[in-house]
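Let's sit down with a protein and look at its sequence and fold side by side. Which protein we use is up to you, so please pick one and set it down. Label the sequence line and the structure token line clearly, so we can match residues to local backbone shapes. Go ahead whenever you are ready, and we will take it from there:

***
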Amino acid sequence: MLGVKGVFIIGFGDVGSSIFYALGVTAAFALGATPLAILIAGIFFACTVLTYMELSAAMPEPGGSQIFARRAFNDIASFTAGWALLLDYILTAAISAYTIAPYLSQFWSFLATPGGKFLFSSGLVAFLAVLNIIGIRESTTLSLVLGIASGLTKLLLIVLGFLFVFSLPTLIGQIHLGTSPNWKDFFTSITIAMVAYTGIEASSQLAGEAKDPGRTMPRALRMVLGSILFLFLGLSLVAVCAVPPGELGTKYIENPLLPIAQRLPYAGFLVPWVGILAGALLLIATNAGVIGASRLAFSMANHYQLPGTFRTLHGRFRTPWFSLLVFPGAAILTIGFSILLSETTGKSTTEILANLYNFGAMLAFSMAHLSVLGLRAKEPNLARPYRIPWNIRIMGRDFPITAILGLLATASAWILIVWTKPWGRALGLVWMVLGFILYANYRKRARIPVSRKVEIEPVSIPEYSELKFARILVPTRGGAETETVQVAARLAKASGAELIALYVMEVPQALPMESFLPDEVVKGTQALERAEAVSREQGIPVETKLMQSRAAAETIVEFARERACDLVVIGAKPRAVPGSILGRTVDHVLKSAPCRVWVLSMGAKVPAPLPPSPPAAA
């Protein structure tokens, strides 16, 4: 589970990676007014962040605007938001993977060619899809380290830039609004600049994995807002002074941070470092797009908005293999089509991808703003740990001014894309039409009304009422580990302690945190029933707990700490794992548990019964 700092750093990485490509595309239209376009887009971004702060705190579920629209309206609105978000995730993977090659081309010139860019980016997306099907776990620690490194590097570029290249006369002298850029290009640049902030939707998905989301999400998103606005505006001010805006939006449109580093002291270190850091961060952003699409499709299928195939798990790896083939495949096709279109029209591939990216993002943001307004009218008494300030009262209901402004801004940006960008309009509308056909056909075959909101009845797992004090914790997987439960039960009986049996279902990264895993639920229920039977034979009660998380070891440690356990009894089998004899889970519990840990070798003989405890005093 993530605290405020964890959500902030990961969220910062989700949003912050976009500056590596958004700055150049914005400069292509705004020229010397690029900082002004970034600032105006940032104000609209602030309105959107406030909306996500209220909604993600009130509804801490994976799905983002798809879940918000479902609660506020119906399944048609929910599908509209969700399908637009799927396009957003596909484009996240596509534009992030594509942008890596221009930053690394300083090391391998082959990556500067259209063919090299396609082969590298498409191969990267395919590789990540395969890894996620197999179920490789992404390292949260790596994301945190890279997020910190990214923030410090951007801050260093800003500080050095203001010391050595920034010039106020140069900045002001390059702004000629109405002529260079003309008003049409300037307004277009504001919509393009919004690409720099679209990662906020992915950040809101962390609500399902946050500790106390009602408190954590608003604080973390507020920190993301402040830091991103400062860094993006600072970098844009330095960029237009360090590089002629015309070059920034043409020659360096695909790697706009490199020319900044080239014109600063220590360029020999900064240029390769910025390239390597950009590659690493954009790799994580690509994977976030691949995983985000599969998680969202799984959630939509669970709500009967997509066919059941999208929630089908691989028989061996237990990952949504179909989604992990379809959506990365769509990202690869998008990259190839955009490169081909770029070669025939002369437009930048990054610009083409950014316009299509904005089509889905602005539609999803508009649905989020509509949802917060709809819920204020429909459910005024909904528990809102965070409530947007600055409201106007209409017909007895309070409506946030920022949500109204955000809706006007994002809807206008979407309309401008549809009006002025023929390829963004064509591809985006084709995507939405195909989605509605799929949705309507599926609902018709399933005999579910198109607009009906399908409620999923949660599966209830019987549990003992919570005990006042928890002392001995025994993680179990069933089977041979019944011996571990026997030892723990006898220890609890001998000492008069209370016993808790814990079964942890590990959720693959490619699935939403709240996914329903029926096979794992059955296995866990059976294991806990065996633990209950073993404890009953010893004549003591046991509290059973079925949980799901990303990592069993961390959940065991956290549960032991939260319940003030003073002993963990865990089973282990010797394993031939490099650097580990007992296995990574047992090693982590031994190292990090807040109490004593007794490890029982699996298959060892169960010790003889311990002498009974003396009767308690009356």
User: Anything to note?
Assistant: The beta strands are 391-394, 397-400, 472-475, 499-506, 543-549, 567-572, 596-601. The CA atoms of residues 97 and 233 lie 24 Å apart. The first helix runs from residue 4 to 16. The longest strand covers residues 499-506.
